[in-house]
Amino acid sequence: MGVVLNLDGKRGAASVASLMDLTADEMARVNELILSKAGSDVELIPELAKHLIDSGGKRLRPMVTLAAAQMFDYEGEGHVKLATSVEFMHTATLLHDDVVDESDLRRGRKTARMIWGNQASVLVGDFLLGQAFRMMVEVGSLDALDILSTAASVIAEGEVLQLSVAKNLETTEDEYLAVIKAKTAALFSAAAEVGPVVAGATRNDRAALRSYGTNLGLAFQLVDDALDYGGKSSDLGKNVGDDFREGKVTLPVILSYRRGSPDERAFWKSAIEDNQCDDAALEKAIGLLHKHGAIGDTIGRARHFGEIARDALAPLRPTPQKDALLDVIDFCISRVT
Amino acid sequence: MGVVLNLDGKRGAASVASLMDLTADEMARVNELILSKAGSDVELIPELAKHLIDSGGKRLRPMVTLAAAQMFDYEGEGHVKLATSVEFMHTATLLHDDVVDESDLRRGRKTARMIWGNQASVLVGDFLLGQAFRMMVEVGSLDALDILSTAASVIAEGEVLQLSVAKNLETTEDEYLAVIKAKTAALFSAAAEVGPVVAGATRNDRAALRSYGTNLGLAFQLVDDALDYGGKSSDLGKNVGDDFREGKVTLPVILSYRRGSPDERAFWKSAIEDNQCDDAALEKAIGLLHKHGAIGDTIGRARHFGEIARDALAPLRPTPQKDALLDVIDFCISRVT
Question: Which Enzyme Commission number(s) are on file for it (chains A, B) (predicted)?
Answer without folding.
Answer: 2.5.1.90
